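Dear colleagues,

As part of the handover before I leave the project, I'm documenting each prediction I ran so the next person doesn't have to rerun anything. This entry is a single chain, and its sequence is reproduced below.
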Amino acid sequence: MTNLYLIALGSNMRHPRFGAPRAVLDAAVLALEEAQLAVLALSPVIASHPLGPSQREYANAAAVVETKRDPVQMLEQLQQIEAQFGRRRHGQRWRARVLDLDIILWSGGVWQSAELTIPHLQMASRSFVLGPASSVAGHWRDPVSGHTIRQLHRRNMRRE
């Protein structure tokens, strides 16, 4: 059985090999494919302001990915890719990072475990996630609220 995942991609630091954050996202998509994750759709890259103490602007995108991995296996794979790009998971939250890969939704609905919650808990309040996501998975529904990604994005934009 295959699963579909909506993945948010973000970067706000240069990588010594790949360069600027937009190029990091391009390289991350290739890394997803090299990990046998079929990238079915990829949004345009947008720029966004950082949350928290980081001062650097982010490059953000979203991808729809197909795999046989369950959510925990998918999280482990995404964290391995982040580590390949130099991401360290300790220290201050919301700091600058070379690569951030988050599971936003999956075709199985809701997932709750100690290490992972799907849908992503802050998804509905983050335009930098919903904007790119609406271009590749606008019809996908949040299994908690029942709203589509497109509807959540429009609501979020009205609040800003």
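DSSP finds four helices and seven strands in the chain. The longest strand covers residues 58-67.

All the best with the project,
I.
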